Amino acid sequence: MPCDRHAAIRVPDASSQAVRRPSDGLLWTRLAKEKRPGLTREAIVDAAITLADAEGLDAVSIRRVAAALNTRPMSLYSHIQRKDDLFELMTDEAIADIIVPDPLSADWREALWTIAQRTRAVALRHPWIMKARGSWPRLGPNAMRHMEQSLTALAGLDIDRRRKICILRAVDTYTVGHIVTELMEQVMPRREGRSAAEQQQLMQGYLRTLVDTGDFPRIADLGPDLPLLTDHGEAQQRFDEGLEWVLAGIAASLAELPPPTRHPLRRPRADAVEQTSTVEQTSTADLGRPDETGAEEPIRQ
């Protein structure tokens, strides 16, 4: 699949596509149904997201959010009972941007590719979402829409429901793992007080020292390509290549599955029955018989 598909991936601003109504289940059943005048839950969540984007999830507290809204901390508790609820609301708000605008591609690989790309884009824009995932699965309205769309992407596959869930988990595991790796790569040089280039140069020097010992012949065989071990290259390209391999592997495994039985078994041909033993002829005759026109009648199951 060509890489120019990125031109079609447009992750909207955080203010668009969010579903505001609470749904049934856990936190969502505890949310107040009435609209209170003045301060709104939406404003609280938006302020918390802005704070988390700027300073990280650890910076989000009821007191800090209240200060950003120029209100008293106690006023927030009229809308949100605890900080964990706020984190879940923030996460569900961010998930809204993962949802692909209609129409979703009818090709399951293309559809999952697009969903994974949007997941990565949203997570990199809101790095705190990886830390705020907490309990799983998510049951907020946008999380449910995301799950519904993911299952819709696989609706055309003639496989059992368990395999569909396993496919979604495999793609999600790869996507989340890659995102976490990217975020770690961004943070590590800053923690050491170095630039990414300086960190890369330091690791390369150490690798050459190890290779010179002669204890790592396979690594030494890399020769001029030794930097590939530590220089992971352009993140988008790496993500695309890995995602293609994951989807191609899934497609190959599905092609090896035995075709599902769509028709009832029918009685063997008469000449084949004649070659069987008496016992086999008797058991076969019991399974089905020709009708008056000579056509074989399907086995009744």
TrEMBL record:
One of its GO terms (molecular function) is DNA-binding transcription factor activity. Keywords: DNA-binding, Transcription, Transcription regulation. Residues 274-285 have a biased composition (Polar residues). One of its GO terms (biological process) is negative regulation of DNA-templated transcription. Residues 61-80 bind DNA. Residues 288-301 have a biased composition (Basic and acidic residues). Residues 257-301 are annotated as: Disordered. It comes from the Bacteria. The keyword DNA-binding applies. It holds the Pfam family TetR_C_1. The keyword Transcription applies. Residues 38-98 form the HTH tetR-type domain. This is Regulatory protein TetR.
